[in-house]
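Priority: low. Protein: Arsenate reductase. Input follows.
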Amino acid sequence: MKPKVAFVCVHNSCRSQMAEALGKLFASDVFDSYSAGTETKPQINQDAVRIIRDLYKVDMNETQSSKLLTDIPEVDIVIKMGCNVVCPFLPAKHVEDWGLEDPTGKDDEEFKKIALTIEEKIKDLSNRINNKEIVL
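Result:
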């Protein structure tokens, strides 16, 4: 069975959504991707949606929505996107904090930088799971 990975931040509208989309795109053979937060937004950050569509041809508006921690199944791995105040807590066998800046309200370059960083980290996470470097 594939491990379940949850990408969490407070609002589940930007970074965690990008991570869910890229996890599904680049690592669905290794793990299942979910994202959630302690609060939701009526819609995903539309700048993030546009950047992910431009870079990866994935439309997050069609396949994803802002979710609460209670809306997703139990997970094996929790990835905190980088919360300045309080990161949501979810029980898991493995937890990491990727410490990513929130690009909300910033320019497209900032969004692209975060997207590419997330892509890199997703691929690295996938490799570490495959190589049994993460004990589940």
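The mean pLDDT is 94. Residues 4-130 form a domain with the Rossmann fold fold (CATH 3.40.50.2300).
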